From TrEMBL:
<dbReference type="Pfam" id="PF03618">
    <property type="entry name" value="Kinase-PPPase"/>
</dbReference>
<keyword id="KW-0723">Serine/threonine-protein kinase</keyword>
<keyword id="KW-0808">Transferase</keyword>
<dbReference type="GO" id="GO:0043531">
    <property type="term" value="F:ADP binding"/>
</dbReference>
<comment type="similarity">
    <text>Belongs to the pyruvate, phosphate/water dikinase regulatory protein family. PSRP subfamily.</text>
</comment>
<dbReference type="GO" id="GO:0016776">
    <property type="term" value="F:phosphotransferase activity, phosphate group as acceptor"/>
</dbReference>
<dbReference type="GO" id="GO:0004674">
    <property type="term" value="F:protein serine/threonine kinase activity"/>
</dbReference>
<keyword id="KW-0418">Kinase</keyword>
<comment type="function">
    <text>Bifunctional serine/threonine kinase and phosphorylase involved in the regulation of the phosphoenolpyruvate synthase (PEPS) by catalyzing its phosphorylation/dephosphorylation.</text>
</comment>
<dbReference type="InterPro" id="IPR026530">
    <property type="entry name" value="PSRP"/>
</dbReference>
<dbReference type="InterPro" id="IPR005177">
    <property type="entry name" value="Kinase-pyrophosphorylase"/>
</dbReference>
<protein>
    <recommendedName>
        <fullName>Putative phosphoenolpyruvate synthase regulatory protein</fullName>
        <ecNumber>2.7.11.33</ecNumber>
        <ecNumber>2.7.4.28</ecNumber>
    </recommendedName>
</protein>
<keyword id="KW-0547">Nucleotide-binding</keyword>
<feature type="binding site">
    <location>
        <begin position="150"/>
        <end position="157"/>
    </location>
    <ligand>
        <name>ADP</name>
    </ligand>
</feature>
<dbReference type="GO" id="GO:0005524">
    <property type="term" value="F:ATP binding"/>
</dbReference>
Amino acid sequence: MRPVFYVSDGTGITTETIGHSVLAQFEGIQHQARRLPFVDSMDKAMHTAGIIEAEQERSGQRAIVFTSLVDAGASAVIAETGALVLDVLGPFVHPLEHELGVVRKPRVGGAHALVDYKAYEERINATNFALTHDDGISYNYANADLILVGVSRSGKTPTCLYMALHYGVKAANYPLTEEDLHGEGLPKRLQPFRHKLFGLTIDPVRLQQIRQERKPGSKYATIEQCRREVSRAEELFRSIRLPHLSTTNTSIEEISSKILSQLGIQNQLY
C-alpha cells in the first residue's frame, strides 16, 4: 500500500484534485492517501515532514507527495523526507511567465481565497435555492436555472447541491409521484418550464438497495416497486424527448458536467 500525501499551504483541495486525477491513470496501484492542509509555516512543514517519514518507515514504501507549497523553504523540508515530491503547479508557472511577461507572485491559498464576494454570494444563494426547492418543497421555478426530474432516491438532491456549491447554479428538483407516473405526459406544474428540465434515472436494483437502507421492509423499497417506477419514468422521458441519464455508475461530478453541457449552462467551476 503506497502512502500518498496532498500537502498544501491552503485548503489542499486543488492539490488533492490534481493528484487524485493523476493517480487515477495508473490502474492496479494501491495507495492510502491523506490530505495535509494549511502547512503555512516552517514549524508546520517540519511536523508534516515527520508524518511523511513515519509513514514511510511504517509502510516500507517511498511516499508520493503532491504539493502546492509556495514557500521554497517549506518545500525543501518536505523534499528532505526522501519522498517523491511532485509540485502540481510548477510545470505551468515558467511557461506562463514567459508567455504573459509577468513574474509569478506566490500567494498562499489563492485558488480558494474569498476575494470575489459577488461570486461567493451567488454560490450561497444557489445553495439556499436548492434546499428550498428540494423534493417538491417549493414549486416556484421561475428563477431556477434547471430542474431535475426523477423518481425518489435517483440522485436529484446531491446533484443539485453539488451544482449549487461548485457552479453557483440554481437547481431545483421534482420527484415523480405515483400520480405523475400514471398520468399522461409531463406533469402540469412542469410544463411551463420544459426547457429547464433534465431527467435522472437509475438501475432498479441499485435503487432498491438505496431505498432499503432508508425504509427497510417497506413497499417503497421492494424491487417490484422500484422496477415499476423506473420503467414508467423512463417511458415518460422518452415520450416527451426529455434529455436524461442514469446515475447508477456515474459520479456526481460527471452527472453535473453532462447536465450543464446538454442544457448549455456555462457557469464557471469555483
